[in-house]
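Researcher: Please translate sequence to structure tokens.
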Amino acid sequence: MIIDVDLRSYFVTPSTELNLTNPEEAQEVIRGLKVCNTLEPIGIPNRALKHLPQRTVSLLVLIFNTILLTHHFP
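Model: Translation complete:
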């Protein structure tokens, strides 16, 4: 799974060299998701993610980047 590989790179990278994401990169990943009838592991269908407004994607990116910077995974 791509997400697992990306998270692994954050654990081995020193905190001063974090490779944070941005809303444009997140939107590109969301656009590339396959639309299927099954729920993803987090319980949100990809179809719903594809319809998120840009403001919501920006807020999610802010949350994800804060988690990576603080090393606090809720």
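Researcher: Any highlights?
Model: The chain has one domain: 2-70.
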